[in-house]
Amino acid sequence: MSTIETFLTSLQQYEGDGVYNPWRDYDERCDCGPDAPLIRSRQLTDYLRRRVGRAKYLFVAEAAGYQGCRFTGVAITCERMLLNAHKQVTSAMVLGYDGQRTSRPDCPFMTSNPQRRQGMNEPTDTYVWGAILDNGLSPDDVILWNIFPFHPHKDSPFSNRTPTDAELAAGLTYTQELLALCRPDILIGAIGRKSALMLEEKGLAAAVMRHPANGGAGLFRQQFAQWISENARP
Q1: 28 exposure class (CB count in 10 Å sphere: 0-12, 13-18, 19+)
Q2: What is the DSSP code (8-state) at residue 63?
Q3: In whole angstroms, how far apart are CA 96 and each of 51, 84, 105?
Q4: Measured distance CA(83)–CA(100) in Å, rounded
Q5: In angstroms, rounded to a whole number, what is the distance separating the alpha carbons of residues 174 and 42?
Q6: Cα separation of 124 and 37, whole Å?
Q7: Radius of gyration over alpha carbons of the chain, in Å?
Q8: FRET partner for 115 with CA separation of 20 to 30 A, picked from 48, 56, 159, 233?
Q9: How many Å apart are CA 13 and CA 21, to the nearest integer?
Q10: What is this structure's pTM?
Q11: How confident is the model over 130-171, as pLDDT tens digits?
């Protein structure tokens, strides 16, 4: 029988060129220390423990980014949320306790003083969490995930790239593993076309929402609110 622990072990086994695995890999240039992947693994485990078997909604985006899951281990969630330095989201909402930073404040790739002082911040994470809270959902009723749960990057670790078709296909297997842990009637929302197409290929019914990046925030909020109002769960 699949468990959160076996799911995490499965994630930790993935390796790929130009891909950073937050729960396995350590980059001394960017990470706070060799225990960084262990911290991220614990945070993902605790995030899921609060939600698996309870969550009513699963929202699936495309891939982990360097400003978010790359350093937290939690999809669509940035460090400032776990460090209580975010304007709307607290670590108690995410984990139930104060999270830990895994980015190095003196990382040579950091370009701003707020990053060095408060950790990484990701606008997409803010939009998605904002929609959850603005629509009155309990954070524990929602699981956030990515079709490709790892961080695909270019030459710099502080960069994002679009996952290849092969990476998306490989990543989809982890979404299926996660769904096997969830309640059978969980509703799925796809954030962006790529995640929607991948889910559709596997026959997984999902509402399609505009990705909030690149000018899509307004439409995303509208679609999110409408879908939740039409699919309220007791």
Answers
A1: exposed
A2: E
A3: 11, 12, 24
A4: 7
A5: 18
A6: 23
A7: 16
A8: 48
A9: 9
A10: 0.96
A11: 999 999 999 999 999 999 999 999 999 999 999 999 999 999
